[in-house]
# Entry
Amino acid sequence: MWYNGQVISTQEATQQALIAAHGEIRQLKNTIGSMREQLEGAGFREQQKVQHAVAAVNEESSQLRAAITSMREQMESMRLAEQDRLQHAISSSAEEAAQLKAMVQALRDELEGQKSNYEETLKSVQTGARNELKQLQLTILELRDRLEGQHDVVRA
# Structure
């Protein structure tokens, strides 16, 4: 039998074929091992990429949740501040309305008092004027009587 340009026995040929097959098997095993390592490395890298992507999504989700929570708190704070301002405005308006009502009542009372004083003064003036008129009428009658009496004396 010929092997690599030499004549060899069958047993030697078988043994050399076995050695060559074992070498080829070893090479195939090494190739398979290398490919397995590459495949596992690629799978590991892919898994790391997925984990990084998931971590990035989780981080972004966490940041968005924090932003939403912050905005909700700000909105609630603004709503409470607006309620406080509104309540203060209502309270101030109520106080002002009460003060204005009290002022209006005080002015009414003062006006009523002035009206009452005016009416009393008017009555007093009217009474005085009537009394003076009566007095003047009596004086006129008395003077007329005197004048007529003097006139009668002068005629007689």
The first strand starts at residue 2 and ends at 3. The chain has one helix and two strands.
